[in-house]
Design brief:
Blueprint (H helix, E strand, L loop, with lengths): L1 H11 L2 H15 L2 H12 L3 E2 L3 E2 L22 H17 L6 H15 L35 H8 L6 H8 L6 E2 L8 E2 L10 H8 L3 E4 L5 E5 L4 E3 L1 H4 L6 H10 L1 H17 L10
Antiparallel strand pairs: 1-2, 3-4, 5-6, 6-7
């Protein structure tokens, strides 16, 4: 009987059910940005340069070693996964979806829920069985906020991204904020940090930013009147050839949404094989 109930429950748990639960979570907790960061840091370790391997496999679930202990992932194995726990317990435990697919879907639902584009999600990512399936380090795989364009290229080009893709992906900073106890940086990038729009680009171009150092000793740029910030890696996008794309996205939100969607899906699928359109 228990086995038949399990199979019945799995069959009756639909993709729409999972999406509805994610939407409700985002609406209740205002946690869309950290769900985006969770997916980005899970998938973003992929590389084909001096470093190879890496894929979205939810290795951050394990905090004995590996990706769950990376400084760049501070707050993700605790805050983000605690927020997702009721949904994880409901659907992953039942075998309806893997953790890695849930993290991917949660980010995409969050983006759309906050006003962003509808992101197509494919399924079939395999969860890591232990921290041993992590990549060796965040260094050379995840970007540092206090570095410029050369560093951005070193990180993103081996993942298969162009300079234009770098600008599009950086536009995810239209939502969320930096937490001093996690990254050392402090503040939100845009005035409406829970709306996914092109405001990251419009505010970057419209505001004057001054140097400041956080209490943790991290250099960043601040707009005093509104309290918003930009990191060195953000304002690096005002250099050529990136600036042309920044200006395009500031004028044309749909162009940003289109390019972001393409680059974001590529990020989420890097290192994956045999993905499918259905659960």
């Amino acid at each position: 009987i228990a086995a038949s109930l399990f199979l019945h429950n799995k069959a009756t748990m639909s993709l729409d059910d999972i999406k509805d639960d994610i939407k409700a979570l985002v609406a209740e907790k205002g946690c869309g940005p950290i769900l985006i960061r969770l997916s980005w840091h899970d998938a973003g370790v992929y590389s084909t340069g001096k470093l190879t391997g890496g894929c979205p496999n939810a290795a951050m679930r394990f905090t004995d070693a590996g990706e769950g202990t990376f400084g760049a992932n501070a707050g993700l194995p605790t805050v983000a996964l605690d927020l997702l726990k009721p949904i994880t317990d409901k659907y992953v435990a039942a075998g309806t979806i893997s953790n890695a697919d849930l993290w991917t879907l949660a980010a995409n639902v969050a983006i759309e829920s906050m006003g962003g584009p509808a992101i197509p999600t494919r399924f079939g990512r395999t969860d890591a069985a232990s921290s041993a399936e992590s990549v060796e380090s965040q260094v050379g795989r995840l970007p540092d906020g206090d570095k410029g364009t050369d560093h951005l290229r070193e990180i993103f080009h081996p993942k298969g991204f162009t300079d234009k893709d770098i600008v599009a992906l950086s536009g995810a900073h239209t939502v969320g904020k930096c937490h001093a106890d996690r990254s050392g940086f402090d503040g939100k990038w845009t005035e409406d940090h829970l709306t996914f729009s092109n405001s990251y680009f419009t505010e970057m171009l419209a505001k004057e930013y001054a140097d400041e150092t956080t209490a943790q000793g991290c250099p960043q740029k601040a707009h005093k009147a509104t309290g918003t910030i930009m990191l060195i890696s953000d304002l690096a996008l005002l250099d050529a050839p990136y600036r042309e794309t920044v200006e395009l996205y500031a004028k044309d939100q749909e162009a940003f949404f289109k390019d972001f969607t393409a680059a974001w899906v590529k990020l989420q699928e890097n290192g994956c094989e045999g993905l499918r359109d259905t659960l």
